[in-house]
Amino acid sequence: MRHDPERDAAAYLAGELGALRRLWFERHMLDCRHCWAEATTARQGRMLAESLRVVAPPSTRERIRGVAELDTEPQRRRWPYLLLAGAVAVLIAVALAMVPRLTETQPAPLVAAAELQSADALPLGQEPGPPLARIGAYVWRGTAQEELGEIPATVYSYADPDGRRVLVIASARPFPRAVAAQDLEPAPSWLAEVDGASMLCADKNGTSWLAVATDEATALSVGRALELT
Ligand SMILES: [Zn+2]
To answer: How far apart are CA 222 and CA 226, in angstroms?
Structure first.
């Protein structure tokens, strides 16, 4: 999406942005100095205007003007605090908006799969045999039965000569979709980054498959080798 600092910030502060555009703008503002500055300035301006209205409502304007002419010092001293309060309010609003993203976690079965991928050793057996004996430089080293979250799964472990590991995981139950996953053909296949591991997920003949690799290219090549995508 393109940015338009002045209009976006004004619409954001006025609450006129749609939900998606609002989310986008909040995230974008963290990286874009122009939009951030525009929102901060606009927010401070609005707070100043509002505080002016509070300080001098029409009904008491004359009385306050009279007081202000006698002694304007107390009001002048308030401006820096109001500006500071405005800046702090913006920071708090942005921080609160970030909280759900920071705590947004991947589904437990996928987190468990990522942990397996980086585990020191897996309890491997020879049964059942793998869907493929080798995938490129990766050779099947054994099979483990694991519970990933609530999902019982068969984990085929592959390693290349450098000891890099690829897991091919099969289950009769579908794996949950990763947060921020990217769609692949055929639907509902997806590709995602989960806790440092690259995952490709696809369904085939009633089995849900999850390929877990150190990088996206490897995950994709496993998907192709298994004819999942
Ligand atoms: Zn921007």
So the answer is: 6
